[in-house]
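Fill-in record for NAD-dependent epimerase/dehydratase domain-containing protein.
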Amino acid sequence: MEKPIVTLGRGTARSAWNYCGQSLAAGFVDGYLSILDSSDHSSSSFTSSSKFKYAIHLYLVWFIKFPTLSYSKLCKSGLTLWRLKKILTMEKQAASKVCCVTGGSGYLGSWLVKKLLEKGYTVHATLRNLDDKSKVGFLESLPGADTNLVLFQAYIYNPHEFKHAIQGCEFVFHVATPKQTADTQSSQKIIEGAISGVRSIAESCLQSPAVKRLIYTASVLGASPLTKDGFNVEFSVKESSWTHVDASFASTHGLQHMRTYTVSKTLAEKEALRYNGEANANGGKLQVVSLACGLIGGETLLSHAPSSVAAMFSQLTGNLSTFMGLEYLEKLLGSIPMVHIDDVCEAHVFCMEKPSMAGRFICAAANPTIAQIAAHFRENYPQHQIPQQLMGEEKEGIAWDKSKLVKMGFVYKYDMENILNDSVKCGRRLGAVVSIDQ
């Protein structure tokens, strides 16, 4: 065992006793901790989890490594004593499994955090900025958040920041992904950011003795039936189908951001699956599950309609820019694979709770065409006049084989009608869809 270069003093050890119920000496060695029993300075018989070590790490950072660091600066970094106490309190909840959710303030990420807390799990959720009260506040208000949720600051373009959130977790859900903004980052930066983010998070999983499984939130955009020439299609789509990222699809300027997102998700998913079966720190093998999710609809915890939900009801609002997203999906995928927010989060939890699971799985409950979606709206929302150019072309959609996940035992609760209707309800609640009396 490496010799510690820092040893807790008597007063600090007494404080550690107060927090931990055990007097400790701890060493900070190359960013990691060597924890010793202070009574005999030998290797402790107490099997400390990585989360416990990280808690002591926070303590050391505060009182030893940065003795002049102000409380306000420490709060901004997320390394507060309050978080230390909270993590140590969670340590005592031995029955609760610990998992990490990256991108915890996003549409899918926040619903997944909510779902995990409801099921009694301890959650480490990452956000880009802990000073953003609009995103921190609604997460901290979730039932169970006061005892079972710890927030960490981590940015996808600084992927090394995720390692602290991953420490001590058995399961890691990598939901966060870089997206193009109006400020306009280059397409290459977004693609490289997605890949390097996956790589860094997977490496952190391998280095953490506690992590058993990495579950990556992929997209059906990575499973196009289009052949490499971009003009012909395969007979059906299944898990072995992959989008040809160098194909000539979506070359128009208006959809360049969609093409960038498609390429980034496709290459990032392949990078994630590359780590499946890699040896981890505890001598086992890391399991990697990739969920290729369809367009997500339904309700939201956010204060605005997410882009995927807005696309669902774009024919009712007549919003051409969001409707173009549906057109892009149909051209690339042959139909619109879709899934309800509650189902997709249940699928993530399902992939975590299986004793053993790895590989790629398509996660979509239905795959209608644009014309079939329009037909549903015309029948159920006749007060809305759908513009002719948004009605879609009458044609047969491409078949999607979604049976692999179902054969594992997963059951979808929401069909196409439920997904579309709940999306409209969400839009009306948020004022994105105007209610029109018949």
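KEY FINDING: Residues 10-77 form one domain.
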